[in-house]
Amino acid sequence: MLWLQLTFTGLQVGALYALTAAGFSLIFGATRVFHFAHGAAFVLAAYVFYWAETSGLGMVAGIVLAALAAMAFGVAMDRLVYAPIQRHEGSFFTVFVASFGIGIAVQNVLGMVFGRSFVTISTGLSRSVKLMDGVYVSPLAWIAVACAGLFFVALLLFLNRTHVGMALRALADSPELIRAYGLDPRRLSSIAFALGSLLVVPSAVITALGSGLNPTLGHHVMLISLAATIVGGIGSIGGALVAGFILGLAENLALVVFESQWTEAVTFAILFLVILLRPAGLFGRHATR
Amino acid sequence: MKKARFASAVAAATLCIAVAGSAIGSAHAEDLKIGALFPLSGPNSAYGDIFASGANLAAQHVNADNMLGGRLTIEYEDSQALPQPAVVGMTKLIEVSQVPYVLSAFTGVSKAISTLAQRSETVAVNGGGVGPDLAKLGPYFWNVIPLANLEVRAMVPYLADQGLKKVALVYVDDPLGQSILDELKATLPDVGGELVDAMSVPTNTQNFSGIAAKVRSAGADVVYIASYGAQQVQIAKQLRDNGVEAQFASYSGFSVPEAMKLPEADGLLFTTQAVDYTSSDPVTKRFVTDYEASHHRMPSAYVANYYNAVRLFALLAHALEEKGEPVTGANLLAQRKATKSFDLVGGTVSFQDNGTLLAPIQVNRVEKGAPVALTTVSIQ
């Protein structure tokens, strides 16, 4: 039964990875900005939810406030950090270093405000329920998988059925063409950041409820998001989602065979194999020479 | 005229002697600085705050009592509980600040800085790391805390007495975790126990739901958690959330408020060195009274350890100043070897030849967020 239990656990972890990776992939795919502070948006949303919950505002208000905080952070990063750098023709690395710096600053500010230790929210949702002998699943696991499915369908509909969505897909390829159609690339870029940051919110809330928080959590989130984006194929939201699930499942099912300390290595072994065999990722477009 | 010249010469000589005398006097009254390498940021920073609270209180008492010729100050460097930043901090303390005595914590950090301590003849004193290897880091590395092998040796017979003989270990993949694994392997067979599974986790892992599945399938009576900081709290919470109902056990790393106040940690057994906070000896009494007054809670063993580490420095430096010898690492070491015992928090103690204090170990249980002492074990 161990493998079945680990499959359930892997699906829950994979759903959380998929959502954060889809957010990063949306931002990177549309704007080509290496938004390292995506992990900071995750931690910020999680701590805002924690604050709302412990202040007695309730879970719904907490989720709304967390969503607003994450989106505001994403838009502020785009408008106040990346736009000025890009206006002065700052390189890819300048943007990356700025983003990295902001990520560290957010981590430290959260540490000063909420303390640097581990915080938890006590809830029955994180308590696992016995499904059968040796298999326990918490309500949060079902919520995580449902959220991943729901957000993915909503995102696909948005990107394929709305003008703004289609413009977002076109933004990465040709900002000039966007302008020719009378659209504002800067506004579209902000929408990409707002939506990408919104996608971390379910994952942040579930993490706050399930495993607890500390301000350094963002680095791991960013690392997994990056790995899933590359494995799935840069710019492919569906690819990031599938890759998130693959990495979550692999990380957990590896425990059947390997020592627990090797599970992260399994994630990066998969990343290495994909880079070697399919450099464009599982669902990425091959570049023509 | 001759008289006037003679008077001038006498006055000049008197002035010179007075100036030289005051210079010598001020040399004795020099302020003393020691260093501290604590995690002040990162997931283990909660420990840094606790360690510093003990060290600062000791410095405050030393200065209030005028134990030393000048004022005692502590220069803090952020180790982040990681070896690499700790080495950078230690280098700065030795080369730039030229301190003779450095407070250290965490096994990995302490091992990393120990070579610098030996090379520069700077005393490094650990009051937080419990890896048994810390007893073998040379004459300039001292421990004012009993090490983890002693804690495991106290915990295992207690568990066996309670009928808890099948142990699963979740341990952090570093020298501390490895030493606890080795000690459990060595001690469990002696009491008819068995290590049914041992799962190592990297220091940065934060998700343990998969580990919980493995722990459940191992069918252990006890899960021994050998980690620290935010990670040990996450392990306890996630194991309980994922259906692990076995008894939890741990070592002194769990004796921090953030770990004990976790609802999932209720009933967890953990070991610490035994400190009798109700003792009537003046050092312990003053320490407990003043700590409670300023922090509104009882001190933990970690607070006592770093208080003792700073007080130990003051006692040694005071003895050196009385003899007119400079306060250097080499002289502090010689003075420690020459002194048979020290009046520290918890009573009169003495060092073993390897520079480690030997103290009895206490088994505690977490009840409603606070430790309750169950039994005290004398370890030889």
Protein described:
Chain A: This is Branched-chain amino acid transport system permease protein. The complex is a heterodimer of chains A (289) and B (380). Chain A is built from 12 helices and 2 strands. Chain A has 289 residues and is an all-alpha fold. Chain A has a single domain (2-277), classed as ABC transporter involved in vitamin B12 uptake, BtuC. In chain A, a hairpin with a 2-residue loop joins strand 1 and strand 2. Chain B folds into 2 domains: 32-145 and 278-349, Response regulator (Rossmann fold, 3-Layer(aba) Sandwich); 149-273 and 362-377, Rossmann fold (3-Layer(aba) Sandwich). In chain B, 46% of the residues lie in helices and 20% in strands. Chain B has a 7-stranded mixed β-sheet, sandwiched between helices. In chain B, strand 11 (342-344) and strand 12 form a beta hairpin. The model of chain B is unreliable at 14-28 (pLDDT under 50).
Average of pLDDT of chain A: 88
Name the poorly predicted regions of chain A.
Answer: none
- At CATH's second level, what is the architecture of chain A? Orthogonal Bundle
Largest sheet of chain B: 7 strands, mixed
How many discrete domains of chain A?
1
What structural class results from the helix and strand content of chain A? mainly alpha
Q: What is the CATH topology assignment of chain A?
A: ABC transporter involved in vitamin B12 uptake, BtuC
The biggest beta sheet of chain A is recorded as: 2 strands, antiparallel
Secondary-structure content class of chain B: alpha/beta
- Strand order of the biggest β-sheet of chain A: 1-2
The percent of residues in helical segments of chain A reads over 70%
Assembly annotation: heterodimer
Global geometry of chain A: globular
Topology:
The complex is a heterodimer of chains A (289) and B (380).
Chain A: H1 2-31, H2 38-54, H3 59-87, H4 92-114, E1 129-132, E2 135-137, H5 139-161, H6 163-171, H7 175-180, H8 185-198, H9 200-210, H10 217-232, H11 237-257, H12 263-277
Antiparallel strand pairs in A: 1-2
Helix pairs in contact in A: 1-5, 1-8, 1-9, 1-10, 1-11, 2-3, 2-4, 2-9, 2-10, 3-4, 3-8, 3-9, 5-6, 5-9, 6-8, 10-11, 10-12, 11-12
Chain B: H1 2-28, E1 32-38, H2 45-64, E2 72-78, H3 83-95, E3 101-104, H4 107-120, E4 123-126, E5 141-143, H5 148-161, E6 166-172, H6 175-187, E7 194-201, H7 209-218, E8 222-226, H8 229-241, E9 247-250, H9 257-260, E10 269-273, H10 282-295, H11 301-323, H12 329-338, E11 342-344, E12 347-349, E13 361-367, E14 370-377
Parallel strand pairs in B: 1-2, 1-3, 3-4, 4-5, 6-7, 6-8, 8-9, 9-10
Antiparallel strand pairs in B: 10-13, 11-12, 13-14
GO cellular component, one term (chain A): plasma membrane
GO molecular function (chain A): transmembrane transporter activity
Subcellular location (chain A): Cell membrane
